[in-house]
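Saturday, quiet lab. Running sequence design on the structure tokens for the scaffold JK sent over.
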């Protein structure tokens, strides 16, 4: 999820969210990077079904990667 925070009004506005599956989440770690305005690289950290994926502006998955069970990653980059 990404929010815009207004610290003076004490409000938060949701500007983006993505869920790989409904009601699934990582219990720890992970990150999201937007190397440009067209894609987002989503790393799930400790999550059993997927390691990372890349989505476009419409949240369509462009690329997905799995990792061997028992291994985890806390950060992913797109170069």
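Result came back. Writing it out in full:
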């Amino acid at each position: 999820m990404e929010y815009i925070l207004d610290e003076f009004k004490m409000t938060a506005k949701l500007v983006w969210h993505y869920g790989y599956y409904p009601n699934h989440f990582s219990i720890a770690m992970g990150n999201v990077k937007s190397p440009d305005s067209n894609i987002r690289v989503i790393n799930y950290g400790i999550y059993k079904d997927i390691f990372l994926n890349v989505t476009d502006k419409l949240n369509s998955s462009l690329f997905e990667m799995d990792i061997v069970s028992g291994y985890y990653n806390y950060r992913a980059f797109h170069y």
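Notes for JK: The mean pLDDT is 87. The first strand starts at residue 2 and ends at 6. Ask whether to fix the surface positions before the next round.
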